[in-house]
Design goal:
The protein is α+β, with helices and mostly antiparallel strands. It has 29 helices and 24 strands.
Length: 826
Amino acid sequence: MTDRPLYNSKIINTFVKLVEWKYPHVDLNRVLHEAGIEPYAVSDEGHWFTQGQVDLFFERLVQATGNPRIAREAGQFGASVKSLGFMRKYLLGLIGPGNAFIAIKKPTSSLTKSSAYEARKISANKVEITVTPADGVQESPYQCENRLGFFEAMLTTFNCGNPVIEHPECMFTGAKACRYLVSWKMTLPIRIRTVRSYLALALLILCAAVAPWYPWQVLSGLLPLSTILLLACSFLENLLEKRELYAALSSLKETTDELLDQAGVNYNNALMVNEVGQAISKQAGIDEVLENVIKALENRLSYDRGLILLADPDQARLAFRTGFGYSEEQLSVLKETSFNLANPESTGVFVVCFREHKPILINDFTDVSRLHSFQSLQFAEKIGAQSFICCPIVCEGESLGVLAVDNIKTKKALVQSDMSLLMGIAPVIGMSLRNAMYIERERLRAEQMRQSQKMEAVGQLAGGIAHDFNNLLTAIIGFATLAQMNMEKENRSVQYLNEVLVASERAALLTQGLLAFSRKKQATNPATFDLNRIVEKIEKLLRRLISEEIELVIAPSDQPLPVVADAGQIDQIIINLATNARDAMVRAGVLTIETSSVQLTADFIEARGFGAVGRYARLAVSDTGMGMDEAIKAHIFEPFFTTKEVGKGTGLGLAIVYGIVKQHGGYIDVDSHPGKGTTFTVYLPLLQEDAMPEPLAQARQISHRGSGTVLVVEDSPEVRKLTRQVLEDHGYRVIEAVDGQDAVEKFLKHQDAVRLIIMDVVMPKMNGKEAFAEIAKIRPGTKVLFTSGYTPDDVIKKGVLFEKDNFLAKPSSPQTLLRMVRELLA
């Protein structure tokens, strides 16, 4: 448990600030180093330390300061005026110590995961606080002392008089938890309010007692004087309360400003990542790539300077290639300097970073100056390097260069999160550089490699979003279908639900297309279809996609065109090509989609540089738009390449089309000229004329009713609710489980009744593979229907093996679910 992150860096930072203020003679860097803590990790508010690290830090700190009670002192310091840290800002945002102690659970949860804080109010000026350690966590006694100091500091923050902290129970003396009783003297506004109340009562009694004998004196003297006195008390009370409120609002404003600043930084980082992605997609060579990347880094990152060093082809020297923020004199030094990579004994920062693939953060170069040669020290002095981060630029396990940034003007401290951000950017730069290198060496081979790498990157993205997205689509399609099944055909809502299902189908096709772009294997659900029928079926959807000013012409072949294809993916090809054609025609035009059969001859193949001799089904999508020149045509199938304005295109549409066509063993060609429109032609292998195309799947009502108990294991509440509704409406009894662990427990309880398990593959606590393995041990031969929002290939990669009839891909319809359940139980 000593390796478990438990304590936020703000706690250690409080100790550091205390030492800097009260013990300036202590070498903090040495203390941190001996405790295995980097100074930049302490400055990073998102960093967490283990029990072992904080214990060792406290031990070394006590030795360095000679103060065994420094833990309590640090707790008191945390909310003091001298600290001005996180806790003081938070406490000042709460009006009064009572509110602060009752709300203690929230701030402490952002500081420590080692224990849970609970507080309850005993009286207006007394609270009870209970601190319970988390399972498996063994705190140290000094942390109890630190808490006592922290509670004392909270009372000091509100200027409470005579604070008393009792500690009747302590986990370090045998109790299960630490219990504290905290009481304090009433704050000044409350005391004034109390005095005013008693004074008002006393003056009222006095006036009533004296009035019968001295009525005139009471009316002219005592009563006005009493009123003035009471008003003065009220004024003073209101003044003090307003001061407290003003202090709270000021603290809240400061905290809010910090949050807004951080939100701005996060947003800026997101824009930077997007710009880097766009920059590397428009590359022609290494220099152009570096220029685009360095501009994005300069515009979006909050660093004063940055540079990129690249290794030569022999990996012998590391030299400057581009940078920003440097003066002309410094740039001259950078261009004239290179670093020797061939010396295995070199310990320079850049060389170590490059050689060991390890990021390095240095907040004071003098700390590591002893590791560098005289030439390196001269170089650092000339460019003014003092505090900097360097990250290796790595691609496929090979170092290509180093990315480094630093601050000279702003003097902003560099922290762990800065290094993490750069480590996320560096591999993207590395991938781009590798692609550019291949372009310069072997154009064709580099093109294939870049396509493969970028497809893989998008595939990882697609796999991450597809699961949740397909769960939502399953719920939308399922509940809309159930609603239709329970309505009369004449009901107008049936038409509206049809529109929902059409839109859901389009969303499902988009997801399938993105996944198809990322896959290297053949189409997931290939079957024999007539290409003409696929085109005719999607016509209605296409008319919704294009504007009314554009004329849509569908010209199917008069002969069947049987192809082995995934109908959904062919739909995606047509949708993407039609959408691009629509965008290419600014106001009006003609969009033509035609199919035919064609014989690819040797002359055809030689003229175009692709294909194999044979008969193909031809799908042509033509527009009368603005067309493209040769320079744009050379890049249109690259991932992220787009000629559209920012926010109007992802640069993935044609890359998706290209990937689907290749999966189907086909070819794609483009014919375009500026001002003369564009024609995309897709060639798919054509089957024999006597091949019987399958009819496209149509939704149908299933009146079959079943029986038996089904265990539905699904972590998505929407899908779980839908599945239960569909099965129960058709006669099945349903038992629900929210994850794999819950499934095993429910099966143990109902194993004699359960006839079938519907098991999601990816779930928390225990996934579908692990859960079903446990169930199979309990009752071998148990029937299972696996389901997932991931592709079947991804599910197989996760180790889940299934037959064709016991896997249901999401999104799915209720009809499909019922059919598969019926077949499995038959």
